[in-house]
Amino acid sequence: MNSRRSFIRKATAISAIPTLSSFVNLTQPRLEEIQKEALKKSPTELAEDEDFWSFIKQSYTVSPQIINLNNGGVSPSPKPVQDSLERLNHYANECPSYYMWGIMDQGREPLRENIAKFAGVSPEEIAFNRNTTEALDTIILGMPLQKGDEVILCEYDYPNMLNAWRQREMRDGIVLKWIDLKLPSDDKKALTQPYLDAITGKTKVIHVTHMINYNGQIMPVKEISDLAHKKGIEVVCDGAHTFAHIDFKIPDLGCDYFGTSLHKWLGAPIGNGLLWMKKEKIATVYPLLPNPNPKTDNIRKFENLGTRSFMIEQSIGEALNFQYALGNERKEARLRYLRDYWAKNALAISDRVSIQTSLSKEFSCALAVVGIDGLMGREIAKTFFDKYKIHTTQRTKIDINGSRVTPHVYTSINDLDRLLTAIEYLTKG
Ligand SMILES: Cc1ncc(COP(=O)(O)O)c(C=O)c1O
């Protein structure tokens, strides 16, 4: 197993590590020592420090028996987030309308400022909602498009968004232009050229997924946005899988609209999403759930959701604290280290194993798909669970056929060794 740990280390500058008190009980005897050691390391060096990450794991309440390697679907919340939700639920149930609408509601604007800062945008461009589907459907169904206007998209985009576009096609007569992408890929030109080739004088929108759910492919959104803008075309970006996963700010993508789910990589309670759009676009997009002034340029018009849990929303604050304490750069480096560990060692097991995700930094991070020649993705995922109690998800789409494996910051090398044993078993079947 030691030979598996021979990845090249690349030292990079590191900022000071904030207190680890968010992660673990401060009475832990080795905590200070570990924190001191961690401070000396670059994110890539720290990524390999099992002691450090074993303390991070203590902030989670994940099952020690079932190994969860489907963190792409939805993430568990760390303990401080779970505690916050429980605490706020207790308050709310003492007098719901007073605590929710009178007290907790006052937290929304500071929360908007905090999350906007993390995302690198203005708070006046951020709306809270329940998930990526709601965020992007608001944009897709609300943006001004006429009969004959063209939208470019592909089959690897997420089905909910494709359904929204198809509904607009059905109702409004817009035209959907489908492009083919060859995945996996680490060829930027091959990933951008199909969008460029599909542009006509009628193209109004390009829909692009930042990280494709089927195999974890990261798309060159910035390049696609720059090409689109040269021709006056708007870009809608599905950021469900990348926010608080890879280290970026929304403006880095150059897109016009962005939606994400905060219950994925931020670890906020389930049912939290975020919508961002450029300030100048707000007035032109109709809200999905109308308010009295649907043409206002106030982003809050998208938050007229009716009664919902403010406790869930307000607990985003603790998830953000945890994210800051961990540091996005450190988190990304650990996730990539774990992904490399299992994927590269899986390839070494047998020629029957394929990794259907690019392993280069620019084009992937935690999500990757393992295929085994002669087996369907669902058979692989079933054996992982039935025999090894490893929870993954099957992915079968166009050229992708395998089990999608997604570790998290609480995943250990031991967990991944069990996965490698399972892969080895399947190759011998
Ligand atoms: C790329 C992508 N977009 C959107 C979604 C939908 O997210 P949600 O169900 O939180 O709305 C997902 C869910 O996994 C996804 O993978």
**CATH T-level fold name of the largest domain:** Aspartate Aminotransferase, domain 2
SSE pattern, N- to C-terminal: HHHEHHHEHEHEHEHEEEHHHHEEHEEEH
Bound heterogens, unique: pyridoxal-5'-phosphate
End-to-end C-alpha gap: 23 Å
Mean pLDDT: 93
Number of helices: 16
The radius of gyration over CA amounts to 22 Å
Strand content bin: 5-15%
Give the proportion of residues in helices. Answer: 25-40%
Number of domains: 2
Which shape, going by the Cα principal axes? globular
Main pleated-sheet profile: 7 strands, mixed
Corresponding CATH architecture of the largest domain: 3-Layer(aba) Sandwich
> CATH first level of the largest domain: which class?
Alpha Beta
Q: Provide the structure class.
A: alpha/beta
| Total DSSP E strands | 13
Give the strand line-up of the largest sheet: 2-8-7-6-5-3-4
The CATH superfamily of the largest domain is known as: Type I PLP-dependent aspartate aminotransferase-like (Major domain)
Low-confidence segments, ≥5 residues, pLDDT <50?
Answer: 1-29
